[in-house]
Amino acid sequence: MTAPGLPLRQLLMSLGEPLVELQTAPHGLDVPVQDVAILDPEDPPTAAPGELVLAIGARGRAALPALRAAGRAGAAAVAVKLDAPGQADALREAATEAGVALLSVRRETRWEHLDSLARAIIAGPDTPDAPGSPEHNAGDLFSLAQTVAVLTNGIVSIEDTSSRVLAYSRSSDSDEVDDLRRLSILGWQGPEPYLSKLREWGVFQHLRTSDTVIAVDPHPELGLRRRLAIGIRTGAQPLGTIWVQEGSRPLAPLAEQALVGAARVAAAQLVRRRRELSADVRLTRTLLTGLLEGSTGAQSLATHLGLDVRRPATVLAYSAGTTEQLTRAEVTGLISVHTAARHRAALLAPIESRVYVLLPDLPANLPMATVRGWAHEVVEAARDHLGVRLRAALGSTVEGLAQVPESRAQADRILDAMGRGGVDLEVAALIDVQAEVLVSEVLALLQERGGLRDPRLTALASYDRRHGTRLAESVLAWLDALGEVRVAADALHIHPNTLRYRVRRAEQLTGIDLAQPQQRLLAMLQLRLPADS
C-alpha cells in the first residue's frame, strides 16, 4: 500500500522562504508528497509517483526533460535552480503542461541540505514511529520550532553541535530575518565569520556547559539582531542549540522559560534521531498510557524511568474545542514545552480527544496553587498564541504512582462537567466544581437509564418538540429561580404572566404537582437533560 504522503502545502509551509518558492501547482497544493528523489544530470530523467524530484545540475531550460518525465510518472513536484528571472516563464509553462508542481530553489541553497530537510518533514508528524510521530510528546523538530516561535514572538532555528540547521520556524516577513539566520538556512550551517564572533563572545562555551539561556546583544554592524539561545543537552552531553532571533516585535516576557522547556523536549527528540532511545520512547509511551488507563502497574513505568513510586503525583487533563490535526499538534507541542519548563520529569500522553500530563516525583509540600498556576499558563498561552480555548482540569494529588488512575479519573470527571456547560472556568479542581461534577454525573445516569426518569416529564419535552412550545424550559427557569416569577421571566425575556401561564399549563398537561418537593427536585434534574434524549 502506498503511503498517503504529506500535502505539498504543508511541505512548503515548513520549508518556505528562503529555501524554495512555488512557481506553479497545476493540481493544487493538496498533492501528496511521498518521497524525495535526487536526479543527477548524467542520469536519464526518471521519477516515481508522489516524489519531489530535486533536479540538481539542471539549471533553467536544461530542466525541461526532468519536468516532462516527472509529469509522465505522476511525481508531485520538481525543484530546480534558475540562472535568470526569465527562465521561470518557460519552466512554468512546461510544468503546467506536464501537470507537475514547480519549485524554484535559491542559488545559494545546498542540495544535500534541501534533501535532508525535505525528508525530515515528509517523515514527520504523520508517520508512525518516525521522529515527530503524533504519539511522541512534542511532534517533530519543525513543529517544535514553530511552537517556540509562537511562544516567544521570535524566529527560531534548531541546530546540532556542528551548527548545522536541523529545523526552523516559518517567518511571514523576510525583512525580519537577519543575515546570520538567512545564511545559516541557505548554507545549512552558520557562516564561519559569524560563528567565530560567537566563539569570541563566549556564547558557544556557555551553551556547551550550561542549561541556562544566554542573550546575544544586537550588532547592526554585523547584520545581527538580538537573539536568545539555549543548549540542548542530555546529562553532560551537548546535543545542539535552539536560537531565537528577535524580529519586528520584542520577544515575549516568558521567552526564556519557553526555551528551557523546548530544550528539554528537543533533547528527547535528538536522542531519538540518533536511534539511541527509540525503543525506550515507544516503551515509555506504552507504559504511561497503560498507567493512566489503569491497565499497567506503576512499578513498570517507575523502573523504566527511575521514578520513585512513593512520591506524590498528579494528573492534569486538557481539552480543546477543536479536533483539527494541525491545531491538536500545535496545542500538544505548546503543552509539552510549557510543562517541561516547569517540571523536568513531566510526561505527556494524548489519549483520544484529551491531552494528559503526569507530574510524578512532586515535592511533598508542593501547593496545589502552584500546579494550578502552571495550568493557567498553558491555557493563556494557547488562547494568546494559537487562538484556541483550552479547558484544564487538576486531578487530585495522590500519594504515589499506583494511585495515578484515580487522579486521572478525577480530572476526567471535572472536564466532563466543564464540557456540559454551566462552569465558567478555564482551569478547575474538584473543590471548584464539586456540585457541578456531581449533578453532571447524576444527569449522565439519568440519560443512560431511562427507567429512572419520570415519564410525565419526558412527555412534556415531547409536547414541546411537537408543538414548538417552551413549557419545559419555562418550568426549569422557574425552579432555578426558586419560584421567583419576575426573576425567571427576566431570564427568559418574557412577561411574568406568560411564565405563570406556562407553568400552570405544564402542570395541567402532565399531572405533575410542583408544590411537592420531590417532584420539584426530579424536575430540576430531568429537565436539564438534552431535549432529544
UniProtKB/TrEMBL annotation:
One Pfam family matching this protein: HTH_30
Q: Domain CdaR GGDEF-like: where? A: 297-416
Domain PucR C-terminal helix-turn-helix residues, every copy: 471-529
Query: Looking at the record's lineage, which domain of life comes first?
Result: Bacteria
Give the family from UniProt.
Answer: Belongs to the CdaR family.
Official protein name in the record: Helix-turn-helix domain-containing protein
